[in-house]
Amino acid sequence: MSNLEAAPDELVCGADAQCAGIELLSPRNVPLGGPRAMDVRRTLPQKQRSLIGAWCFLDHYGPDPVGDSGGMAVPRHPHTGLQTISWLFTGEIEHRDSAGFHAMVRPGEVNLMTAGRGISHSEFSTPETTVLHGAQLWVALPDDARHMEPTFAHHRPEPLTGSGWVVSVFLGHLTVRNPAGLDQFSASPIKTHTELLGAEVRLEPGTSITVALNAHHEHGLLVDSGDLNLDADHVPVDHLAYLPAGTPEITLTAGTEPVLALLIGGEPLNEQILMWWNFVGRTHEEVVEYRRAWQSEIGAEGTLSGTRRFGDFPTDQPAALPAPVLPSVRLRPRD
């Protein structure tokens, strides 16, 4: 997914609360396109928190009636220095990229695209989709991997299940504690370049589960819908609860409504990144060059360059998205 904000260097944040033991990040609404566009709810990045592990971007959207909003219609756009992770709850999206990968994103299946040195892709909800509901996440690549060749991976995890709960681990590994018997463990085969966790959690009303965490990682829990307590704290719908490193396990308890949530985590990146529009780099000059190369490749500025950083794309596809205008101030990196 592209960041379609007209001024992506600015972050407008809500009033976030500090609960006992967790930091609560509020969402902000961002329209994907024109006046009838589908809105997404963005919880990462924010001014006070740019990263959770290497996770640097989190949008979730829907349930969205495609007939009213037009669904997802994001033409070809570029990425550098990151991995995109698509996870759907309802609907279907068609993915196409300049590395030659063409795939469908479906509920319960993770699609991970590694941009590396540069890639371009498009995402459109399919004609059969009537309701679209899901999440788009980005992971910043560490310095030793961010110039790699672009690639793509797909995986359908086998869910862990119990009485009133289902957990699907799409990145990394996770253990659900079982006080009455054997713990349940799941691991994803998808390659990442830092240690990461990504999992969908569904709880029926009144259900409680305890999840073992890597205590060296930091974590975030996004409540998409329902009534959820994280240990002693209530996490409101659409909010992202941040847990610092040092947390060995959490207990998740559903109240009177069923819960749908995403649990993410990872080892702290310990690198400064610079993120503007769809580019992750390290310096202002890098991002300026990424933008120049993209505008040149799509013919929006000057003569087409000889080397195509963002690859070739089928000519029968909709026109590519031009990059926004750079701000008049120097871009600053984030921790």
TrEMBL record:
Recorded family membership: Belongs to the pirin family.
Taxonomic lineage from the root: Bacteria, Bacillati, Actinomycetota, Actinomycetes, Micrococcales
Residues that span the membrane, as ranges: none
Protein name stated in the entry: Pirin family protein
Superkingdom of origin: Bacteria
Domain Pirin N-terminal residues, every copy: 39-139
Domain Pirin C-terminal: 199-296
Source species of the chain: Paeniglutamicibacter terrestris
Gene3D superfamilies: Jelly Rolls
